[in-house]
Amino acid sequence: MTSKLILKNVLAEANDTLNAFRQDTDQMLAFERFVDVATSTLQSGGRLLSCGNGGSLCDAMHFAQEWTGRLVRDRPALSAMAFSDSAQLSAIANDFGFDQVFARQVEAHGRPGDLLVAISTSGKSPNVIKAVEAAKRLGIQTVGLLGCGGGEVLNRVDVAMVVPHAERADRIQEMHIKILHAAIQAVETRLFPDLEL
To answer: Does 106 map to a domain?
Structure first.
């Protein structure tokens, strides 16, 4: 297979995934709920927390930095945190087990009124599941960005967005970052309606 054909196939798969998501009314409603919850969290002084593994943790970090920095418009910094500090992750994994790396950070940093965005392409990651469970115990709302049918995370979160018709992690992650960027833009528009794009 030639390089050009590989690229064409990748772009076609990405386009199919985007179209499937765009046409899924349940996912569009879940997106609106995600934006509602994120907006109300920030309006009330809460913090946006995020976690995931591998590429999903990179998406969680990207999500957090867009709030403290900016996506498109200059605006005040907003409180967001990804559970990505390598010292924290390795210390917790060593002392309590890898399945606790995010839950312990939720317990340390999360407060009622915050929002946890749990990102998992499979929905089966034990450490993401335990983070959601810890958030629930603390009265923290939860949003899941998922793939592969949503896995075990699906029925544990308040709002679930599941990338339809995608079983490959790369296609799912591509959709997740688009959802995150769109959510940031939508929340910014609500919080700062007078700012120009």
So the answer is: yes
Q: What is the pTM for the complete model shown?
A: 0.95
Q: Tens of pLDDT along 142-194? A: 999 999 999 999 999 999 999 987 678 999 999 999 999 999 999 999 999 98
Beta-carbon count within 10 A of 36 CB: 14
φ/ψ (deg, to 5) at 2: -80, 160
For 157, the domain range is 3-191
- Specify the CATH number for the domain of residue 16: 3.40.50.10490
Question: Domain for residue 114, yes or no?
Answer: yes
What whole-number distance in Å separates Cα of residue 155 and Cα of residue 43? 27
Domain for residue 196, yes or no?
no
For 81-100, the pLDDT digits (tens) are 999 999 999 999 999 999 99
Closest CA to 132 of 145, 112, 117, 148: 117
